[in-house]
Amino acid sequence: MRSDPRCAPCLLNRVLYEAELSTTDKELKFMAIQGGIEFLRENFKPGTNAIQISTGIHRKAYSILGDEDPYREKKAESNRIAAAMIPTVREYISGAKPEDRFRKAVLASIIGNSFDFGVQGHKVETENFDGFFNELFENGLDVDDTDRILELARNGKVIYLCDNCGEIYFDELVLEQLKEANAHVTLVVRGGYILTDVTMEDVARMGLDKKVDIVMTTGSNAIGISLEEAPEELLEAMRGASVIISKGMANYEALSEEDFKPIAYLLRSKCEPVSQSLGVKKDMNVAKLYL
Amino acid sequence: MRSDPRCAPCLLNRVLYEAELSTTDKELKFMAIQGGIEFLRENFKPGTNAIQISTGIHRKAYSILGDEDPYREKKAESNRIAAAMIPTVREYISGAKPEDRFRKAVLASIIGNSFDFGVQGHKVETENFDGFFNELFENGLDVDDTDRILELARNGKVIYLCDNCGEIYFDELVLEQLKEANAHVTLVVRGGYILTDVTMEDVARMGLDKKVDIVMTTGSNAIGISLEEAPEELLEAMRGASVIISKGMANYEALSEEDFKPIAYLLRSKCEPVSQSLGVKKDMNVAKLYL
User: Fold this and answer.
1) Least confident of A127-131, A151-155, A159-163, B100-104
2) Which residue range or ranges hold the Damage-control phosphatase ARMT1-like metal-binding domain (chains A, B) (predicted)?
């Protein structure tokens, strides 16, 4: 996806957000913002890849803040809230008709995609996540290609691109459904700390490596995936996949103009530019397959 | 007031806001944002005056957009909504005890200060302004120095610095109370179009010149007042005033570190940096006197 005019203030707000997570030093916050402005002045041009801009500005902010992981507490908080909800959601899924279980697990993992702190115009519901979850779960998917996604995944090779902490607990339920469908699953997490994204630490803590066939990383802490920084094995696996299941906006922004197909984007549409690009309204639960 | 790290993303959001008011041309929006980023890179430094930054960035955006008044429709909308409310509010005031009327008029004009479109984290209630107004009117002032303000104004020389359209209809009720108290009133409006601020056009349309003793302008379209651009007559009048009544955040930002006293700031605190500077919470109704 290309940068939209609306991306610049949102990115600068997010730099401010992570500066405030990282430090109480007002001068340092000022420097982080100034670094973000400097980066935007050099790089924010029509036609630039949205992910290149967001990766660059956050790396610069982290470096100025001298903090390799400003979101560490937010990640832990997301994980706590999500983990507490899982036994209930597991019952929702096992109580559903067999043909609905994949859809329900996907829906849960898309609601989990709302664990995305610092997106302008998007509030993470931490006070009453149960209520928020149940309301959205009741509403269901706004775009629902899950039957066709499952069909491609069954007995096939699935690449599952993770997004946020918290969300990953719901992803686990989808992974279980994929294994039920006899898919060979390659789980992909970020190669380094960025925003609230899942890394190998989360995989290890949750023992997800035992639930899937292979775990890979994106090779770097780029937002979504940088094709320049990704290991060749990952790109090859993506090229040979029966279906790529891509979680969240960042992975969408990274891959929407690339040639990896079939690809299914599972996300909650949390900002206008991404929603427009997908042809959906903001705040929708989207499971959209591109063949 | 000095610039705060939080000002930069907010200003850039406001440039985006006015670009979206002004044009549907995505390239032009991009150019306005890039102009804003460029301006911030050159000028956004710790210790800079907040008003210098906001004046400069909006002037640049207007110039790139080729639009001398992007907020014209928002101003008309604010005026319509406010004017429709005035007969009711006039009754509230005339129904109050005489010693409460100034306070009630001030409160109304502070609620009117919520007509401020494009401030990040602040939503202007246009759908149900009546309900919003009545709720806030019921709650009253959070900081209330109105008795002391009126004491200074009585039989004295008052400089009344206006802020937004819409709000100006409620200001008229305060002006009436000031005239009741036999004050000599100098009304000050912006010298040119900026944001939703009141200009001579509004004064003429409403016939406010007949309600006060003198009308002056700030001499330019600077946000708040630029002391460099203001006519000497205005600065002299401000120096000789029994009390300056300053409406809204921009006038506060412009004058909070200057030496014009006594000065009363009447505003709704719509952003964190201004609220902190005033020592109040966000979204408070503030009538604070500095001697």
Assistant:
1) A127-131
2) 5-284
Identical fold between A7-65 and A72-290: no
**H or E element that contains A225:** none
What residues are paired with A288 via a beta bridge? Answer: A265
Query: What 3-state DSSP class applies to A246?
Result: strand
Nearest Cα to A202, choosing from A158, A170, A224?
Answer: A170
Locate B147 and state its tokens.
């008795």
- Residue of A6, A15, A44 lying closest to B16 (CB–CB): A6
* Residue type at position B91: E
CA B165, B169, B175, B177 torsion: positive or negative? negative
Chain A residues within 8 Å of chain B (Cβ atoms):
4-6, 8-9, 12-13, 15-16, 19, 26-27, 29-30, 32-34, 37-38, 40-41, 44-46, 120
- Which CA distances in Å does B175 have to A283, B181, B204, B208, B251? 46, 10, 15, 9, 18
Distance from CA of A128 to the nearest CA of B (A): 21
User: Phi/psi at A134 (nearest 5 deg)?
Assistant: -65, -35
Residues with Cβ within 8 Å of residue A38, at least 6 apart in sequence: A60, B41
Where along chain B do its domains lie?
7-65, 72-290
User: Predicted confidence band at B256 (pLDDT cuts at 50, 70, 90)?
Assistant: very high
Contact call for A32 and B5, based on CB within 8 A = yes
Q: What residues of A are in contact with residue B37 (Cβ under 8 Å)?
A: 8, 37, 40-41, 44
List of chain A residues whose C-beta atoms are within 8 Å of the C-beta of residue B46: 27, 30
Question: B270 to chain A nearest CA, in Å?
Answer: 17
- Segment A184-199 shows an average pLDDT of 98
> Do the Cβ atoms of A145 and A287 come closer than 8 Å?
yes
For chain A, what is the radius of gyration of the CA atoms? 18
pLDDT at B205: 96
Query: What is the C-alpha to C-alpha distance for residues A215 and A208, in angstroms, rounded to an integer?
Result: 9
Closest CB from B6, B16, B38 relative to A5: B16
Strands of chain B, DSSP E: 143-144, 157-161, 184-189, 214-217, 243-247, 263-268, 285-290
For A92-137, the pLDDT digits (tens) are: 999 999 999 999 999 999 999 998 887 777 788 888 889 999 999 9
Considering the segment(s) B7-65 as one domain, its CATH architecture is Orthogonal Bundle (1.10)
Please count the residues of chain A: 291
Position A169 scores a pLDDT of 98
Which pLDDT does position B126 carry in this prediction?
80
Q: Are B5 and A26 in contact (CB under 8 A)?
A: yes
Topology of B72-290 in CATH?
Rossmann fold (3.40.50)
Q: What is the DSSP letter of B47?
A: T
CA distances to A10, A38, A44, B35, B119 from A41, rounded to whole Å, are 15, 5, 6, 9, 23
